[in-house]
Structures are given as C-alpha cells and as structure tokens.
Amino acid sequence: MNEQTTLLTGQVLMAQKDALVSVPDASSESVAERIVQLRKERKLTLQECARLTGVAASTLSKIERRELSPTISTLQKIAEGLTVELTELITQTRPVYAPGRRAVSRAGEGKKHTSLSCANLLLCGDLKDKRMIPVRTRVTARSLDDYPVWARSDTEIFLWVVSGRMLLHSKVYEPLEMGPGDSVYYDGNGEHCWTSIGDEDAEVIWVMSA
Q1: Positive or negative, the Cα torsion across 115, 121, 126, 132?
Q2: Is 152 helix (H, G, I), strand (E, B) or coil?
Q3: Among candidate residues 191, 91, 75, the one with its CA nearest the CA of residue 133
Q4: HSE-CB for 24 with a 13 A CA cutoff
Q5: What is the pLDDT of residues 148-177, one digit of tens each?
Q6: Which residue has the higher pLDDT, 134 or 99?
Q7: Which residues pair with residue 193 across a beta bridge?
Q8: Is the pTM of this model over 0.85?
Q9: Smallest Cα–Cα separation from 188: which of 76, 113, 86, 106?
Q10: Which of 79, 143, 146, 162 is the most exposed place for a label (fewest CB within 10 A)?
Q11: If you ran DSSP here, which 8-state letter would residue 144 be given?
Q12: Range scoring the smallest mean pLDDT among 9-23, 67-81, 125-139
C-alpha cells in the first residue's frame, strides 16, 4: 500500500468515525419536555399538533403532563408530524454523519424508553435519517387494559420473538400466539398491541419502517 492509498484510507476511516460522533445539546430533557419544546418552537396549539401528528390532543396533553408514557409507535407518529427523528424526541443528542456510516449497539446498549406495556431499547440510535428503526423490547403487559390506546402508525413492522411467549392482538386478525424463533411482518396501520403469556416477559426484536 503506497503513501497516497494509506492517506485516502485514513480519510475514509476518519469520515466513518465522524459519522458516529454526536454533538450534544446543553441539557438533557424528558420526552414530555422535548415534545413541549418542539411544539412551542413551532408555535403549535395542542389541536394543531394533533392534526399534524394524528395523535389525539387529549393524548398529547397527557403525555406532556407526564400522565401517559407513549408507545414507540405513538412517538414515531409525533416525530413524523413534527418532522424530527424519533431519537430526537428521546435524546437531545444530534448526530452528524457522512456517507459509509454505520452504528453498533453492544449487548445492553440503547436508548431506553419505558411505557405502561413495554420496556424498550432503541438500537443504533446515533444514526439520523434511517429507513428503519430497530428496537429490542421486553413486553411487560399481561392484559389489554395495560394499553390506554392501542398502537397505530403508518409503518410496516417486522417482529421476531427472542424468548418467552406473547400474543399479538389486532383489530384485523384474531390474536396470534408466538414463541421463541417465531416472526411476523404486519401493517402498523391496523390497531395492534402485544401482551406476554405467563410469568416470563416476552423479549422481542422488532423493526419499524421510518
């Protein structure tokens, strides 16, 4: 390898390293505070925000008052309506990237988001403008009553069960029981939710189109 090739290789590696560098804002805020901030920056009322996001104004109000912890699907709808990345609702870290980018999440790493029904880890969240959103989730819900609102979003979802057993509930199909190694691909436009079966929380890896 000659000196010029070595230099070019080094430049490419530096660009890929820069792709994973995040530029943090001055403070870290909760999801609720971030949504309030984004809404006020855009001078939107709750009703106007509801029209943009497809999330009911009453639901937005509960989220902002921290009376309701939104599901990932609800956060995705809010992010799309406010034209921001999903990860920007959960963290103030704003990624800078170059072509040839990649991200790695080691075991146990990821941005945490917990709702009444699930404990989520958003994986590889330091990349912006992704075409899909990978999540590892522990399904803590045991009853449909654990869902104040069933998830619904203009996305497609692939889900693979890592451990435990679960039910995929849908307003379109009968409940689908799934166990380790089972997978399903479905349209998120239909109202849906997940519950675990038995004492063990089901753990799943799922991908949502962005």
Answers
A1: negative
A2: coil
A3: 75
A4: 5
A5: 889 888 889 999 999 999 999 999 999 999
A6: 134
A7: 169
A8: no
A9: 76
A10: 143
A11: G
A12: 9-23
Transcribe 161-180 into DSSP letters.
EEESEEEEEESSS--EEE-T
The alpha helices in the chain, defined as continuous H runs, are: 3-19, 31-41, 46-53, 57-64, 72-81, 86-90
Alpha helices in 71-114 (DSSP H): 72-81, 86-90
Residue type at 95 in one-letter notation: P
Residue type, 99: P
Model pLDDT for residues 176-209, shown as the tens digit of each residue = 999 999 999 999 889 999 999 999 999 999 999 8
As given in the structure block, the two tokens for residue 59 are 């639901």
DSSP letter (8 states) at residue 201: P
What Rg do the C-alpha atoms of the chain give, in angstroms?
19
> What is the C-alpha to C-alpha distance for residues 24 and 65, in angstroms, rounded to an integer?
25
In this structure, what token pair is assigned to residue 51? 């029209």
Alpha-carbon gap, residue 123 to 120, rounded angstroms: 9
Task: State the chain's maximal CA–CA distance in angstroms.
Answer: 66
Q: Which residues of 52-90 are buried (b: 16+ CB within 10 A; e: fewer)?
A: bbebeeebbebbbeeebbbbbbbbbbbbbbbebbbbbbb
Q: How far is CA 205 from the centre of its chain?
A: 12
